[in-house]
Design brief:
Distance between the termini: 23 Å
Helix content: over 70%
Shape: globular
Number of helices: 11
Order of helices and strands: HHHHEHEHHHHHH
Strand order of the largest sheet: 1-2
Strand content: under 5%
Length: 257
Amino acid sequence: MLDSDAVLGALRGILCERSGIINIGIEGMMLAGAFAGFVAKTSTNNWPLMSSLLFSVLVALAVGGLMGFLHAILSIRFRMDQIISGTVIIILAAGVSSYLYDRDAIAQGKFSSIAIPGLSKIPVLGPVLFDNPPITYLALLLVLVVHVALFYTRWGLRTRAVGEHPRAADTVGINVNLYRYVNTSIGGMLAGLAGGFLVLEAVGQFQEGMTAGRGFISLAAMIFGNWNPFGALGAATLFGYTQALQNELLLAGVTTV
């Protein structure tokens, strides 16, 4: 089972840490994206479903990007301890979303699965990889895009240089802070999309603190995957499989713990 939010969160962490910014605030950015997507969806329930969902995705992306930019400002401009900055992001998102959450609001509709003809019939892998809603497909595509961008483009080479040897990068004319701002903001958008996945595709509604540690699972997937997009995908898939196995065992009555 593919854990799409963990994949997207891990990609967010990779972009940050490859450019030299430590980020433990993935959880907060995911929660902010989830809440923003929920507010956008409930505000546009009277729109055509697909228009409402796409608008909500864009809002989740935008809010995630703003949270990423905030983390960048605190870390780069004000030189705050990056661990503290990430913690501030988590507390801010949890507090604001809980305070503003309207328990009577209901989001109507969510993304449904789209089976790819032929490929979805492949035994075992077909239903897992080729019978999913749109954001899951997008997460798989982004793994490939981020991998190619990081390791096969000039932007990726400069990003890794900024993260590994910022002084050396600066001496050859690379704007270190600009690359860090851009990567952290783009990473924030990915985390916002991960939160949007929870509300607009997985659950369909918002609950206080609904990320429930998934940002830290993303952080673990990033480290377990050796800061590599495909490695993070493998780790997130393993985590998703174990979570699904746990649920199936409980439902089947195999475990009584």
